[in-house]
Amino acid sequence: MPPRKKQKTATAASTASNPSPDFPSASLLTLALTHHPYALSLRSKEHTKTPDALTDLDAWLTTTLSAKIASAQPITKPDMTSLMKWKLARGKSRPTLLGLVASNAEALVMRSTSAALQTVRAATDIDGALLALPDACALRGVGAATASALLTLHPPHLLPFMSDEAAAFFVSSLGGIKYTDAFYAKFARAMRGTVVRLNADLAADAQIWDCMKLERALFALNILRKHGEEGILDADPGSSTSPSGSLKRRRDGGDE
């Protein structure tokens, strides 16, 4: 496999963006997050042969894998393979990526993921956390989106997972979705800015947001709307929330 091309990382100044007027309200996001398990079940029926496959993978990701990351235990090739299965079941199916991830040497997986997670662990802001991306993407089959699926699990969840469903809400400000380091940096900063805004407006007993929770809320909202199930959200009457544009995106090469 040829060496991964070095990609430009967008600067903070070039990625500043404000949410569109029809971005989901905090109350709608809170409701959507509570229905994330149901949204997962809807997606699982679409993308897996076993109805509960995605739900089971998500439970493993948020418990077993998250615990390993929080306690700085080594991430193994089986871990990365399962993470890829989760990503493909939750999003766009690209079976070749599973084989590419499985082709990495165990030592390389442990070395690359350890370096990436150490960088996130030491980070105090989004810019510092984004420096973890090159190490995570040193593995075959792992691009910005897959790397973000791993890095988002490290508390306090400074980085978001880049799902199409979440990124679709930022198309009006960031442009078409691209699976590149530069686009991911823009998306991550937009998500982080939204988290800061949501937490600044919190009521005393309200949901405390981070990038992982926000992505899961946006994913759930998108999936529920796709399946015509948004009625269960009891959304704000005045909200015109919908993903900005469609899920059409341009591919600029490289792994997801």
UniProtKB/TrEMBL annotation:
<protein>
    <submittedName>
        <fullName>Uncharacterized protein</fullName>
    </submittedName>
</protein>
<feature type="compositionally biased region" description="Basic residues">
    <location>
        <begin position="247"/>
        <end position="256"/>
    </location>
</feature>
<feature type="region of interest" description="Disordered">
    <location>
        <begin position="232"/>
        <end position="256"/>
    </location>
</feature>
<feature type="region of interest" description="Disordered">
    <location>
        <begin position="1"/>
        <end position="21"/>
    </location>
</feature>
